[in-house]
User: Fold these one by one.
Assistant:
Number 1:
Amino acid sequence: MTTVPHFYSSTLAFSYPGSSHPGMKALAKRYIPMTRSRDLDCGLTLVFAHCAGSHKEVWEPIIETLFSQCSPVIREAWSLEWQNHGESANMNCSVIESGRPGVSITEWEAALRYFVLLKAQEGHCLVGIGHSAGACAIVRSTMVPRCAQMPYVAIVIIEDAFGTREAWAEQGELLQNSLDLVMKAIEKRRDVWADRKDAHDSLSKRQPWKFWDKRMLDLFVRHGLRDALPFGSDQPTVTLACSKQGEKAVYADNNNEPYREASDHIASLDRSFPVHYVYGEKEDVIPHSLHQRVMASRRMASIHSLPGAGHFAIQENPNAVVSCLESILKDTAEHLPSRYKL
């Protein structure tokens, strides 16, 4: 177990039922507040899911600040990693290389659902927090069997990548063209560097990384890249942990049906269940019209606009994300049954 400011952390590797990739495992990183002096059976357990191309540690600046500012309402936090991203890409290397490029979000969903149902059964009071594709994974993890209870007490959707069926019916060609442009940009992206310093220097001058908070870029270089030895070479390099082919596959995942299903499911959730919606003030990757469609699909528990942030809200303005989450978590904690309160 390693010690870092404001939290202790440790990583759990686990297998899960329903995998379409035999032998694949998932990683979940646990964070416990260092300052916590009361009963750890109380308070909220936060479950984080990152965006495509990222890694589980991306949430650490946000977790650290939340622990320092509203530790009394938080029991612990977990960050789950997509199986072909970050450290998980190394762990699952042989499984990934033996199959088709990419790991569907439905695979991540299976691991996430198994994990949160287990934690809920252990008595944890869970709040799911997802960014972009991670928001889709969080929402899809609520698609539980009828015999199972909802594992979360609330979920927070940050800069989602959903497109409602109505939006696809009206703007399908435009949306597909946008996805095609994203995939072409990924294909042209540089993905090999001499070392991490070379990668940092290069990325800091290019979009979208040059707009990121310094802490987020540093974390990406540390956890979003992996060491590599190119075939036929004895010169070590670093490359993307989630390969370009793996990231491109996200934007063509089952013709984007998992994301439309997620938007359907949000609308179908019980109206009393708290869904908090957070989006970036800047309209860059996701048109605000798509966000408005999702917001109109149900009564949201709260809606927040993040200043100075676009689709990469977590990376661009983590402090604004913290402010939103602090408000949401304190409100959620106030409405918990007394047995969960400190």
Number 2:
Amino acid sequence: MTEEELNARFAALADDASGPDPALVGAVTLEVNRCQPWWRRVGTERVASLVGAVQFVRATGSLNPADPAAIAAVVKASGLRGRRVHQLAWKVTTTILAIEEWESRVR
């Protein structure tokens, strides 16, 4: 898949009115901020961007948090910039996978 195709697919997902699940965004935001010092709290908007990006990357291919290329794809899809965005993307990705694993065990 070319970069243009990925960009078009992400734009289509971004236009989707539903967006990421608010409950998932809230749970991930709580977990991310639990691990952060109080002066580095992460806003819900940034987490929502990363949750949407994780869902997009998963829809276009595999999502392995141990793979730096997968995390870079999440960062690129989110459109976020900053010093610690890669660390935040990794934390959001691993948190989503942990929540999904827990939900599958509970069901």
Number 3:
Amino acid sequence: QKEHVQQFLATEDALNKAAEAKALSQKLLQRLHGTVDATGNKKLPTGNTSQNVTNSRHLELDVWAKEREVAGLKASLNTLTSEVQRLYKLCAEWKDAEDSLKKKWKKIEEFDARRSELECIYTALLRANMEASAFWEQQPLSARGYASKTIIPACNAVVDMSTNSRDLIERELAAFGQSLENSLCRLPATPQ
């Protein structure tokens, strides 16, 4: 940008010099042709006419050279101006692209933070699931131990009680059967 500014200033300086040279050459041409300058009534001393024509021709050639130089500088200026505009446009596009990338990067960071959060939750749930699985794998052993201490002895006691009750019932039936036979023997043979 510094080079562009320097070139612009050099171009402006050249344009100013060209304008001054053109104005000066026009004044000289007017003096050579004998017209009066607006600032005063002084005339250039007229010398040899062929020398004046040669000087006039030389001045015209200098003016044309300066005009060509000015035209070249104007073309350079136009090229530089269009290049500056292109660079401004490119800078704006890059700024937009940078802003877009920053927004996308922020979304990526937010997503990564959320992913880390969910990963922690997943790890905690997996650990809890494994602990619960180990707990439930131990439950049949615990249930078997509990049953062997409580339910199985109670069932055995019920079996023993039912066996004892059956024996008692059988003895009672046998005793009842005998008492029935004895009482049948005592009954009178004929109705009274």
